[in-house]
Write the C-alpha cells for this entry.
Amino acid sequence: MPSAFSHAFAAVALGKTYTGERMSWRFWVLAAGSAAMPDFDVISFRFGIPYESMLGHRGLTHSLLFAVFWALLAMFWEFKYIAPFSKRWWGLLAFFFMATASHGVLDAFTDGGEGVGFFVPFNATRYFFPWTPIEVSPIGVGGFFSHRGWVVMKSEFLYVWLPFAGLWLAAWIWRRMVWARLKPQQN
Ligand SMILES: [Zn+2]
C-alpha cells in the first residue's frame, strides 16, 4: 500500500474535483475512510490466509466489485435522504466508487508485494500496471520510521500527492476561472 494518508489524500482531491459544493465533514471523513479502508485486509495475515488468496491482502477488499458494494453501502447508510437513482444519487455513488477503487489503482502502481485482485471474486489474478514508480510501503507502522520509510514517503509525495494536488488545483481553477465565466449570469 501507499500509506493510509496518501490514499486518504487522493480521495479528498477526487472529492474536490467531483464537487465545488460545501460538503459536510462526514462526507470528507467517509471519502478519506473509503480510500484507506481496503488495507484492513492485512488482518488476513493474522489468520494465516496467504497473500495471494482471494481473501488475502490486496484481494477482495481491493476489488472493483467491493468498491461497488462499499459505494452502495455508503449511499444507503449515509445518504439515505437522497432519492435513490436520482441524478445526485448516481453522482455520489460514482464518487464513492472512485474513492474506494482509487486504493487498488494506486496499489497497482507500487513496486512490491502481490498485485491487486481487481476482478476478485471472479478471477484471482493479481495485477500491476506496467509502470510501478511508487515504492511499496512496509506493512505495519514499525517499518515506517526507518530509512525505507523515508524512501517510501518521497515516492508517495512525488507520485501520489503531487499529481492529486495538481488535479485538485486544476478543478479549482476550472470552477473559478472558466466555468464561472461560461455560465450565463442570472439576473
Ligand atoms: Zn492496499
